């Protein structure tokens, strides 16, 4: 790891986000098609549900009042910025992102689609729309967007991508190139195309600048190699990950890797006592998916199925571990 982005550089990037925070608050929201609505609340009430791979309608889970208020205020600010300058690329992107954080994934796709009419072949819009196609289980559309994004960003200098939901250190951990290849690899993984998934995550090693990105990318590389029956190669990809790395936000991926290396047991990884209910539910999805796969790799298919079912009984259906668990349980429904 020779080209990590320094905290100083990251902080310079973070400073740009303050511009967004200074935007005037608006009460307008966007519908599925990207057309204005009269209020944030009206927009939230009209959110189109996501249909799971099993055919169930997935609706937004309950969130705390403080969290909801903060997300609604952020959406209103993004809307105000967009209203002030609807032809600004970043305003379009942030309106879509803030909409998606309130579970308006179809609505965010509509916003990005409208943005692509103004900025055809923009890799940032394709990256974000591709991500949200994954959220709504439209994996083939995600692959098409993200493959095109890789073509458009080739040769473009990489930059840190600001976080819409910053970690407690307020330090971004990923970049434009990284996120495109990461989500493309995930989309291929979800349709069972492990060869192309491997290609994407191998390529993504070029854009790993910090330990958080390293553990996230390495975890998927390990799982893909195991799915391909490449156990030696899977073990080899774990070598760069040390036990004493300072991880800012991807702790669940880090713990999964420690399990693969034999440093902790699957049972320890599933022991979620001591955290908040929200943290435990989210960790069950992420850490649980890694353990379920571990069971599967090691001939414990029954235990794996039980855990996959526990994962999809969780309310946090937008998490990648949840979506992957769905794909495992409903392989014939994968588009």
Fold topology:
Layout: H1 7-21, E1 29-30, E2 36-37, H2 40-45, E3 50-51, E4 57-58, H3 65-84, H4 89-100, H5 105-118, H6 123-135, H7 139-153, H8 176-190, H9 194-204, H10 211-227, H11 231-237, H12 251-260, H13 266-270, H14 277-297, H15 301-312, H16 320-329
Antiparallel strand pairs: 1-2, 3-4
Question: How would you characterize this protein structure?
Answer:
Residues 1-41 have low confidence and may be disordered. Among the domains are: 17-120, Serine Threonine Protein Phosphatase 5, Tetratricopeptide repeat, CATH 1.25.40; 265-335. It has helices at residues 7-21, 40-45, 65-84, 89-100, 105-118, 123-135, 139-153, 176-190, 194-204, 211-227, 231-237, 251-260, 266-270, 277-297, 301-312, 320-329, and strands spanning 29-30, 36-37, 50-51, 57-58. The protein is globular, with a radius of gyration of 19 Å. A hairpin with a 5-residue loop joins strand 3 and strand 4. Helix 8 runs antiparallel to helix 9 (194-204). Strands 1-2 form a two-stranded antiparallel ribbon. Strands 3-4 form a two-stranded antiparallel ribbon. The longest helix is centred in the C-terminal third of the chain and has 21 residues, at 277-297. By secondary structure, the chain is mainly α. The chain is built from 16 helices and four strands.
């Amino acid at each position: 790891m020779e080209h990590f982005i320094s905290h100083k550089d990251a902080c310079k990037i973070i400073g740009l986000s303050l511009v967004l925070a200074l935007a005037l608050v608006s009460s307008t929201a966007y519908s599925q098609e990207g057309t204005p609505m009269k209020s944030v609340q009206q927009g939230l009430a009209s959110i189109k549900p996501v249909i799971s791979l099993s055919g169930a309608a997935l609706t937004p889970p309950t969130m705390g009042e403080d969290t909801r208020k903060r997300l609604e205020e952020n959406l209103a600010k993004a809307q105000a910025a967009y209203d002030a300058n609807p032809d600004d690329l970043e305003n379009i992107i942030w309106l879509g992102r803030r909409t998606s954080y309130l579970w308006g994934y179809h609505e965010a796709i509509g916003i990005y689609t409208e943005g692509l009419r103004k900025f055809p072949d923009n890799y940032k819009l394709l990256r974000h729309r591709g991500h949200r196609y994954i959220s709504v289980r439209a994996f083939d559309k995600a692959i098409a967007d993200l493959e095109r994004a890789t073509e458009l960003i080739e040769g473009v200098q990489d930059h840190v991508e600001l976080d819409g939901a910053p970690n407690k250190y307020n330090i971004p951990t990923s970049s434009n190139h990284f996120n495109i290849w990461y989500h493309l690899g995930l989309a291929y993984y979800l349709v069972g195309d492990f060869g192309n998934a491997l290609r994407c995550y191998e390529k993504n090693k070029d854009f790993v600048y910090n330990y958080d990105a390293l553990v996230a990318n390495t975890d998927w590389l390990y799982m893909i190699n195991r799915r391909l029956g490449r156990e030696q190669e899977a073990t080899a990809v774990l070598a760069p990950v040390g036990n004493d790395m300072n991880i800012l936000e991807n702790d669940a991926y880090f713990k999964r890797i420690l399990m693969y290396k034999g440093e902790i047991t699957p049972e320890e990884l599933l022991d979620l006592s001591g955290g908040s209910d929200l943290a435990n539910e989210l960790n069950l999805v992420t850490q649980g998916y890694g353990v379920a796969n571990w069971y599967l790799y090691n001939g414990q298919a029954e235990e794996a199925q039980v855990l996959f079912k526990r994962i999809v009984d969780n309310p946090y259906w937008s998490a990648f571990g949840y979506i992957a668990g769905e794909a495992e349980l409903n392989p014939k429904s994968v588009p």
